[in-house]
Design brief:
Strands 1, 2, 6, 7, 8, 9, 10, 11 and 12 form a 9-stranded mixed β-sheet that branches. Strands 4-3-5 form a 3-stranded mixed β-sheet, with helices on both faces. It is globular, with a radius of gyration of 18 Å. The protein is of the alpha+beta class. It contains 8 helices and 12 strands.
């Protein structure tokens, strides 16, 4: 049975999480890199923005007053509030045979997520072919319908994004344990209160937390279901492991960039910290190497 690396629970700030995702993706083009799964806890709570999202979408003063860090992801999409959510990150090496299509790769990875959600008593399905509402969906990620959504009934249950480099794939995503949409929309800017309330209603219609679906599971219980779901779906054994020396060094070198005001503003739009070169042009977001689900 093949062994994948599992990096144990790590509570850290948003910049450290995003720097580690990029560092692992860069290292995944090496010959000895194992498929790597990890789960994230965000301390302090954070509002993560998509790589190309306008910073003007965010009320920075409201975030500071609420003790919420603001960080920009290396992947695309819109804002996610990491408070009472469960975030996963999977990095697959370039030597691993994967489907050529982005949606097909997403569907393959989703086997583990679907299995985990079934262990929690849900019946999620991947709905392919949407995405028409993305452009007008506002500044919150879960309000958007994409080209392939993981849904329970009519409501989105998991928001994910991919980034590719040299054949290696990073996919990370979030599942809402509880509904924190009132706070989330209080951290975003709108032209007025009427627009905020209208956007909030659309968001709540389009997505659901586990609690709203009748699942009152702790973060640890969801993590255990994810572990089992990936092991059973891919017929692999997850073995706990740490970072290699090169991975640790690259991770720590990227953290200051992810904490910098320049990256948060992202005035150059197309470059990751330290000028990581991305792959081919995306099809869902229309941006290089970046895919959203």
């Amino acid at each position: 049975m093949e062994t994948w690396r599992f990096i144990p629970r790590q509570a850290d700030d948003g910049a450290s999480h995003m720097a580690l995702d990029q560092a692992l993706l860069e290292c995944a083009t090496g010959p000895s890199f194992p498929p790597t799964l990890r789960f994230q806890r965000w301390v302090p709570p954070a509002l993560s923005l998509g790589r190309f999202q306008k910073l003007e979408d965010v009320d920075l003063e409201a975030c500071e007053a609420s003790g919420v860090e603001v960080v920009r992801r290396p992947t695309g999409g819109r804002s996610i509030l990491h408070l009472d959510d469960f975030t996963y990150s999977l990095v697959l090496p370039s030597r691993m045979p994967l489907p050529s299509g982005v949606v097909e790769t997403y569907s393959l990875i989703c086997r583990g997520i679907v299995a985990a959600l079934r262990l929690l008593g849900l019946e999620p399905v991947i709905r392919v072919g949407g995405g028409t509402r993305y452009a007008r969906s506002g500044a919150a990620c879960f309000a958007a319908s994409t080209q392939a959504d993981l849904r329970c009934g009519d409501r989105k249950i998991c928001g994910s994004a991919q980034l590719r480099r040299g054949g290696a794939v990073l996919q990370h995503g979030s599942i809402l344990l509880k509904d924190r949409s009132e706070l989330h929309f209080g951290l975003l800017r709108f032209e007025g209160e009427e627009e905020r309330l209208s956007s909030l209603r659309d968001y709540r219609r389009n997505c659901a937390s586990l609690e709203e679906l009748g699942v009152n599971a702790s973060w640890e219980e969801v993590a255990e279901c994810f572990r089992r779901g990936f092991e059973e779906s891919f017929a692999v054994r997850l073995r706990e492991g740490g970072l290699e020396a090169g991975e640790e060094q690259r991770w720590r070198s990227l953290i200051p960039s992810y904490r910098s005001g320049e990256w948060l503003r992202n005035p150059r739009r197309l470059e990751l910290p330290s000028s990581l070169q991305t792959g081919r042009r995306g099809t869902s977001s229309g941006l290089p190497g970046v895919y959203i689900f």
